[in-house]
Design goal:
alpha+beta, Alpha-D-Glucose-1,6-Bisphosphate, Chain A, domain 4, 4 helices
Length: 152
């Protein structure tokens, strides 16, 4: 089981990748957080082994996963350690993966392909995770917001 979403971005491939990674906090919706405090920022460290996490307005941090592949401007893979209760689970064996590919379709147009896979690793509540990220409030809506920021 996997969820796939694609969005076309009116931006060059390097710019689309940079906004997705270095500019992660500019487009990630603040409503999508797991910490007890309101989210101040979302951070994606730009290196393999880097963290993917949120920082709350109170300074607290909540991990979401790890950067598994960092291949600018072509590809990014991160682990997703949020379980069916939308809580962090540090066990890598229970994490799904998100692969994002940036495909240049022209000098100022990039197709961004996202695949969220391995939901079964989340255990018995894996279907809740798949439904959530597959919904319009999940990756589809999030990618539309990203595309708007990247094109600006």
């Amino acid at each position: 089981m996997s969820v796939t979403k694609t969005v076309t971005v009116k931006a060059s491939q390097p710019h689309a990748f940079k906004v997705f990674t270095a500019g992660f906090g500019t487009w990630w919706p603040s409503s999508h957080h797991i910490g007890k405090a309101d989210m101040a920022e979302a951070i994606l460290e730009q290196r393999e082994g880097g963290r993917w996490y949120e920082r709350g307005v109170d300074g607290s941090e909540c991990d979401w996963g790890t950067v598994l592949v960092y291949d600018p401007p072509n590809r990014l893979v991160v682990s997703w350690h949020l379980n069916g209760e939308w809580a962090y689970d540090p066990d890598p064996a229970k994490a799904s993966e998100i692969e994002i590919r940036f495909v240049a379709e022209g000098p100022d147009v990039t197709r961004v392909e996202l695949e969220h896979r391995h939901f079964e690793r989340h255990g018995e509540n894996w279907e809740a995770v798949a439904r959530g990220v597959g919904s319009d409030g999940g990756w589809a809506g999030i990618l539309r917001g990203y595309a708007d920021i990247a094109a600006a």
